[in-house]
Amino acid sequence: xxxxxxxxxxxxxxxxxxxxxxxxxxxxxxxxxxxxxxxxxxxxxxxxxxxxxxxxxxxxxxxxxxxxxxxxxxxxxxxxxxxxxxxxxxxxxxxxxxxxxxxxxxxxxxxxxxxxxxxxxxxxxxxxxxxxxxxxxxxxxxxxxxxxxxxxxxxxxxxxxxxxxxxxxxxxxxxxxxxxxxxxxxxxxxxxxxxxxxxxxxxxxxx
Length: 207
What we know:
The protein is 33% helix and 15% strand. The mean pLDDT is 93. By secondary structure, it is of the alpha/beta class. The chain has helices at 21-24, 30-44, 103-120, 136-146, 160-166, 182-187, 198-205, and strands at residues 2-7, 13-19, 123-126, 151-155, 172-176, 190-194. The chain has 2 domains: 2-45 and 100-205, Ribosomal protein L4/L1 (Ribosomal Protein L4, Chain: A, 3-Layer(aba) Sandwich); 49-96, no CATH class. A 6-stranded mixed β-sheet has the order 2-1-3-6-4-5. α4 (136-146) crosses α5 (160-166).
């Protein structure tokens, strides 16, 4: 077990919590993290680039000029790829870039990403992150007190005050426990876990 102190919004230590080593302090394998990030980014690609082939371009019904006797190269259609305004040879078509990885690998990758933050000293556990009102200024003040400039915050579902207070502040992102993913963990310097989400994370990532 790894022991991590729990802090409040005033950056005061209010206790300690033991985190499972198999989920929060395991060996980090970069190639697994790379594969999962590549999978996440590939799934986000629109894949809607599209060009028209010689069959899809309008026109091309009549032969531009007779086969022989003109002194020009023979041509059978105006939609040829070598003609201006013709079709595109081997151009892009709508496609799906996504690919799948085993569920076990994805769980391991999330554990490794959290372990990397813990080993770097960039994992913070808070007792709660309750805000009295939707106010970005209050959120920024709390982050300054915590001395955190860039962070992914994992909080309870339905924390509307926190979600709306942080969404216009650059460098921060708030997600529920079931939305935790490798790409967002690695994209932010710090990982903040509200204490109440740790149990649900352990259940979700158990193999």
